[in-house]
From TrEMBL:
<protein>
    <recommendedName>
        <fullName>Cytochrome C</fullName>
    </recommendedName>
</protein>
Length: 145
């Protein structure tokens, strides 16, 4: 009788342990599922956004930007989210954007700085109308009025 009692305790103990492990594994699985890993391109875009936000502030305060961030050239080869690929339109928008952004740093330009900045932001928006429209309202906030 006593032995049976111990057996019961053991059974309950193991049953309980099993359950706990199961809960832990489903929790882990959910975590993996919830984890959103941004693509290289998404990271670059967020950097470009933050950089241009600061640039806008500097321009408004009358500071002259001096150095084009070479990192932005990665727009040509940063890895995209799996479901996307580069087509001809995308490539030409990348070139247009880099040229426009470089113009912001062109000290010899006769075009007002605000206009050059807004041109670059305009190309962000143009490319986004063809590629991913979600961030457009956010990007529009970069325009200097
Ligand atoms: C040549 C096309 C192109 C240009 C130019 C472009 N983008 Fe993007 N942008 C994309 C694509 C494509 C994605 C989606 C990236 C992905 O999911 O891999 C994206 C994503 C984003 C995102 C969302 C990132 C995220 O966390 O998912 C933001 C914000 C963004 N871009 C802002 C900008 C800003 C600001 C500029 C200009 C300074 C700009 N983009 C210029 C194509 C472009």
């Amino acid at each position: 009788m006593k032995q049976l009692f111990y057996l019961l305790i053991l059974l309950v103990f193991f049953a309980c342990k099993d359950k706990k492990e199961q809960v832990e594994t489903t929790e882990k699985a959910e975590k993996v599922y919830d984890m959103y890993t941004p693509s290289e391109m998404a990271n670059l875009m967020n950097e470009m956004y933050a950089y241009n936000q600061q640039l806008k502030q500097d321009i408004i305060e009358g500071k002259i930007p001096t150095e084009f961030p070479e990192k932005f050239l990665n727009i040509h080869n940063a890895q995209l989210s799996d479901f996307k690929s580069r087509n001809v339109t995308f490539k030409s928008f990348s070139n247009l954007y880099i040229e426009a952004e470089k113009e912001i740093f062109n000290a010899n330009s006769k075009v007002p700085l605000e206009t050059r900045f807004n041109n670059a932001v305009g190309i962000c928006i143009s490319c986004h109308t063809t590629e991913c429209t979600g961030p457009i309202p956010r990007i529009k906030k970069l325009i200097i009025k």
